[in-house]
Amino acid sequence: MGVLNGKALNLVVPKYPASAQFVKAGGDVTVQIMIDPRGCVDWAKVVSGNHLLRRSSLRAARQSTFLPTTLSNNPIWVYGVIVYKYHP
Q: What is the mean pLDDT of residues 32-47?
């Protein structure tokens, strides 16, 4: 489904870790997710981004919820990504 940020009912904002703040780490962190038929994140995996920002992004992605996707009026499982942008 591509980037799912805009399809979120509740896109949890990750905390900017103190260790990342200290070194002014920034940039994008991309998290691949699978959403179940209810709109909940079933699993998530970081696919790119600064290592200091990955854990926070993964935690936020797992807590996010999405509008269920349907096919022929039946809820389905979908894959996609969330992109978190960090600005030091």
A: 97
